[in-house]
Specification:
By secondary structure, the chain is α+β, with helices and mostly antiparallel strands. The protein has two domains: 2-116, Aminopeptidase (3-Layer(aba) Sandwich), CATH 3.40.630; 146-272 and 280-286, Aminopeptidase, CATH 3.40.630.90. The protein is built from eight helices and 13 strands. A hairpin with a 2-residue loop joins strand 9 and strand 10 (216-222). This is GNAT family N-acetyltransferase.
Length: 292
């Protein structure tokens, strides 16, 4: 059995995806929830691109465990952004669980974050994951997930302008990130803009941004609840009629988001945890499970 870095290659990106698909598919069935979304060519390409991006930017935080006979068994992807460590992916195939593989992978990822004052993980409901993150010193903040088709009649018209974002807004978004979560996303914005639609607000009241793709809010940050509400409502109103919308990893501190989701007709259920170390839940903020 070997532990090796994730390489910036299509081959390794597919290995990481296959491990994640096996691990999370089994987890969904175990918990009695719907199986994960179908692995469409578009989703596979996006997952590969994300893996290669993180492997380039954080070589010391990305690892694969392989066995000569059994093949790939587990993987972890983690990032460092201006003193903020994040766990982007952590997966072990079902047949390799309870054998110390996850412990070894998480230790490698945490070592990548040595010296970081803050840490964030968007964790699942799986009890093994929650136990591991708590043992690593993270505070577990329960989250909610909102999903369903949008009822436009329930949403008030946005109270101000929201613009389409471009790479020129990178500095604005990094500034919002630093203020809200204590560290910029930096190069992650370039990757996010490749795959998601970007909404930006910037006026005398403050600034903020939101990424949306396939009906899912991928990431949102703003300098006030009012602007965050404006961004979320605008993003949801652009979801095509009949298409399923989703807002994940919403903590109790994000009541403004809960209010918007309920007004839009989305169903609210308990989900996993936002796990934090050295910081309180960022607000107003909806994290990205992949880019945090």
């Amino acid at each position: 059995m070997i532990v090796r870095p994730v390489r910036d290659s299509e081959e390794d990106a597919e290995v990481v995806r296959a491990i994640a698909a096996a691990a999370f598919g089994a987890s969904d069935v175990l918990e009695g929830e719907d199986a994960a979304d179908e692995w469409t060519p578009e989703r596979i390409a996006r997952h590969h691109s994300r893996t290669r991006h993180i492997a380039r930017s954080d070589r010391g935080g990305c690892w694969i465990v392989e066995d000569e006979a059994a093949g790939p068994l587990g993987t972890v992807l983690s990032t460092r952004r201006e003193g903020l460590w994040g766990l982007s992916l952590f997966a072990v195939v079902p047949q390799a669980q309870h054998k110390g593989i996850g412990t070894a992978l998480l230790a490698r990822a945490l070592d990548h974050g040595r010296g970081c004052l803050r840490g964030i993980i968007c964790g699942s409901r799986h009890p093994m994951a929650a136990r591991a993150y708590r043992r690593a010193g993270f505070t577990l903040h329960p989250t909610m997930r909102m999903s369903g088709t949008i009822d436009p009649a329930g949403l008030d018209a946005p109270d101000g302008a929201v613009h389409g974002g471009t790479p020129r807004h990178r500095d604005l978004m990094d500034s919002v990130d630093r203020r809200i979560r204590g560290g910029a996303h930096g190069p992650d914005h370039e990757e996010l803009m490749r795959h998601f639609r970007l909404f930006v607000v910037d006026d005398l009241a403050g600034s903020g941004y939101c990424y949306l793709g396939g009906g899912k809010v991928e990431l949102l940050a703003a300098t006030s609840r009012r602007l965050a509400t404006r961004l979320l409502a605008t993003a949801l109103l652009t979801v095509p009629e009949g298409e399923r919308a989703q807002v994940q990893d919403v903590t109790a501190e994000q009541e403004w988001a809960v209010d918007v989701g309920l007004a839009a007709g989305l169903e609210l259920v308990n989900a996993g945890y936002v796990c934090l170390r050295g910081m309180r839940p960022p607000s107003p903020y909806i994290p990205s499970g992949a880019f945090l």
